[in-house]
Amino acid sequence: MIDSLASRFRRARLHHGHGATDAETEAFWLVAWALKLDFATLDATLEQPVSAAALRRMGTIAEERIATRTPLAYLLGEAWLGPWRFHVDRRVIVPRSFIAPMLMAQMAPWIKRPGSVKRALDLCTGSGCLAIVAAHAFPDAQVDAVDLSGHALQVARRNVKAHVLEERVALHKGNLFAPLAAKRYELIVTNPPYVKATAMARLPAEYRAEPAMALAGGKDGLDLVARIFAQASRHLTPKGLLVMETGHQRAAVERRWPRLPLTWADVADGGIVCLISRDALEAFSVG
Ligand SMILES: C[S@@+](CC[C@H](N)C(=O)[O-])C[C@H]1O[C@@H](n2cnc3c(N)ncnc32)[C@H](O)[C@@H]1O
After folding, report:
1. How many Cα neighbours within 13 Å face the side chain of 73?
2. Short-list 145, 95, 103, 98, CA closest to 124
3. Does the beta carbon of 247 sit less than 6 angstroms from any atom of ligand 1?
């Protein structure tokens, strides 16, 4: 089933970038969903009989995926980051941030001392996915999450509830840091919109199903990135750290802030997520 769905997806020249990186992974995901398998235990449960109803469910979704180019996550109403499931629909972009594996796989220096993060912030939270993964990664932390979209926050609220994190993840509606007054955090994670205007105009159909305000970052894509660099130090504790995803914009970021001492995390092909301390941000007073 996985092979035959993957061949259909390949023949249809779908774009894979919304929770699956290629046709096989997407086919695997659809099969798992139709058979009601848990991703975390997939290996152990693959050898079960397949009902006619499950086959029909798979076929219907595959046809719709190909005919409409809608991301599979919207058709299934779910997306996964590692072992964590999130509800998603068209009010939010499909979770796929490279910050999630960093939080989960202990790839960043601060995660070696999980107890050191007591307050974390997820700016531009969308479905709430990074705030929720941060709350799982730092069991002692209180997490604030901000988004400008009321629709996105409705989805985030549903996810926070499903993960039973209402006590530790607080959602705020507003423009970047505006709803947070003078609060400070040991860790700020953010996956802001960063697609530049010319790229927005050429996006594959799958991306056009997502809210434009989750993707569009102004003419050069760096409008929100610039505001976050300029304002983050006021919301970080002395040893605090900003972790920001800027997608394929590394060269543009380095051109615009050539002296800013950014560390680029070793995820994906290396230039997707940058880290910088409060001290470094203050020293270079980016604006
Ligand atoms: C790339 S999405 C990231 C969503 C989520 N963090 C993730 O990784 O899947 C960016 C989010 O930023 C929100 N956003 C756009 N402009 C904003 C602003 N000025 N202040 C706060 N949030 C904003 C959008 O509504 C969207 O949910």
Report:
1. 27
2. 145
3. no
pLDDT of residue 199: 95
The CA distance from 261 to 143, in Å, is 27
Question: Which residues are CB-neighbours of 154 under 8 A, at least 6 positions away?
Answer: 91
Which tokens in the block code for residue 189?
């994670």
**Which residues face 171 on adjacent strands?**
145
From 148, 176, 177, the mutation candidate for ligand 1 (largest count of ligand atoms within 8 A of CB) is: 148
Tell me how far the alpha carbon of residue 264 lies from the centroid of ligand 1, in angstroms.
Answer: 21
Tokens encoding 150: 């009321």
Architecture of domain 92-284: 3-Layer(aba) Sandwich (3.40)
Q: For residue 115, name the pLDDT band (cuts at 50, 70, 90).
A: low
CA distances from 237 to 12, 35, 117, 251 (A): 50, 47, 10, 29
Task: Tell whether the model's pLDDT for residue 285 goes beyond 80.
Answer: no
Say how many Å lie between the CA of residue 122 and the centre of ligand 1: 10
pLDDT tens digits, 6-50: 999 999 999 998 988 899 999 999 999 998 887 666 666 667 788
Contacts of 200 (CB under 8 A, 6+ apart): 212, 215, 216
User: Where in the chain are the domains?
Assistant: 2-76, 92-284
Q: Is 13 left (phi over 0), alpha (psi -120 to 50) or beta?
A: left
**What secondary structure letter does DSSP report for 214?**
G
Report helix, strand and coil shares of the chain as percent, to nearest 5: 45, 15, 40
How distant is the alpha carbon of residue 273 from its chain centre? Answer: 12
| Ligand 1 lined by 190 (C-beta under 6 Å) | no
